[in-house]
């Protein structure tokens, strides 16, 4: 897997990451969602540099311009529910993309720290021969991405897979490198050091889904 770490170089993205982490700012859900959306736009822009392009003629009021445009057939697949603002950011730039949505969540069958990832909902077009972008803000253990990829197999074989995350843990990246095809790409804004005993990213930012949309009942 090819790992592309956005904040290896300092940029305005640092501001958005800082606000996402800051306990005094992140309670503003509108700003929290918008910062994830903006990072989706930035990561999408960086991701687009890997596309294949072909020259197209564009008629202007004064003549003809040759413009290289992407050839990719894109499908953006977001993991519900935290992936929705990230999906919006990607779709702002890839507005012709097809869209896929899938649920994946942590289920604690014994009401303790042990959990399994359950995938219960999928709405997707065919992925055969297309470029698949999988979006989830938090890459912790990596099990959600792996289970989602398994669930998507029945939708066809994509020609290329790009994963997009805002914050990743090193353990999760290592797990994906074992499970995903070698030619896959991970686009991540920033990488944190570790997971805690519950499998949450440290220092991370907390529960992205709750911060986006409010707390949920645990079942």
Mean pLDDT: 92
CA-to-CA gap between the ends? 35 Å
Q: Given the C-alpha coordinates, what overall shape results?
A: globular
Taken together, the total number of domains comes to 1
Total strands: 14
Main sheet properties: 8 strands, mixed
What is the name of the CATH topology?
Rossmann fold
How large is the radius of gyration?
Answer: 18 Å
Number of helices: 6
CATH first level: Alpha Beta
Q: By helix and strand content, what is the structural category?
A: alpha/beta
Q: What would you say the CATH architecture is?
A: 3-Layer(aba) Sandwich
Task: Work out the strand percent.
Answer: 25-35%
Spell the H/E element sequence.
EHHEEEHEEEEEEHEHEEEH
Helix content estimate:
25-40%
Keywords:
219 residues; alpha/beta; two-stranded antiparallel ribbon; globular
Summarize the structure in words:
This protein is an alpha/beta fold and 219 residues long. It has a single domain (2-209), classed as Rossmann fold, CATH 3.40.50. It has six helices and 14 strands. The protein has helices at 13-21, 29-48, 83-93, 143-152, 170-179, 208-213; strands spanning 2-5, 53-60, 63-70, 74-80, 98-103, 105-107, 116-118, 122-123, 131-135, 138-139, 160-169, 185-192, 194-195, 201-202. Strands 1, 4, 5, 8, 9, 10, 11 and 12 form an eight-stranded mixed β-sheet that branches. The protein has a two-stranded antiparallel ribbon with strand order 2-3. Strands 6-7 form a two-stranded antiparallel sheet. Helix 5 links the parallel strand 11 (160-169) and strand 12 (185-192). Helix 1 packs antiparallel against helix 2 (29-48) and helix 2 (29-48) packs across helix 3 (83-93). It is globular, with a radius of gyration of 18 Å. 34% of the residues are buried.
